[in-house]
Amino acid sequence: MTTPALCDVSDADLDDLRARLRHTRWPRPWPTEGWEAGTEPGILHRLADYWADGFDWRAQEAALNALPSFVADVGGSALHYLRFDAEAPGGLPIVLTNGWPSTFFELVPLAERLSAPSRFGGRPEDSFTVIVPSIPGYTLSAQQPSLIDPVHTHELWHLLMHEHLGFERYAAHGGDLGAGITSRLGSAHPEALAGIHLMAVAQPAAFDPATVTADEQAYLDAMTGWSAAEERTTTSSAPNR
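^ thats the sequence. predicted structure below, dont judge the formating
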């Protein structure tokens, strides 16, 4: 296990990025206005100008490097994670997983509140030890070395929590892509999971229609209708080719 500096971007790389932003080759306007054209041109130009000349990367780099960050060899890959220890002894460990296209960084405020609730009006005895891994290939964890029989992300999480960090029992939270990882984690290792919390729930890959309740069938019908409406909208709005 190592404690790295998360970010150390060279001045040359930053200068190159800013130069490319300043010299963006903007497309001709689409023959419609605003977001109907895909994006609002004025907002996009403003963002590019800010990233080129207003954004203080060094301040953000320092904030990232101040986080409790570690890298471990897990399942044959370099896995990055943050660790926030519970402010009170015996806090239940919990692993938090971000969604796409975000990163581990969006979960830092939640991790701080869970690990040190007294800082936010809560009680120390309600604190958790919080682990926030980076999904392989996203920012700071190495991409899987092979697409042939890789170690699935939920298994990497269990190896990290159970084998590497030594937590016999832990909880898990995830949203979006992280909800899928968390669901698989709970399904694969129920003996180790105290519970899971999801911000998105997918229907199972297979189920017996005869066991579906009236409420579940109503949900399935609603999802089918929504998908059909989305398909009609996408087809009708596609440009002629």
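The two ends are 54 Å apart (CA to CA).
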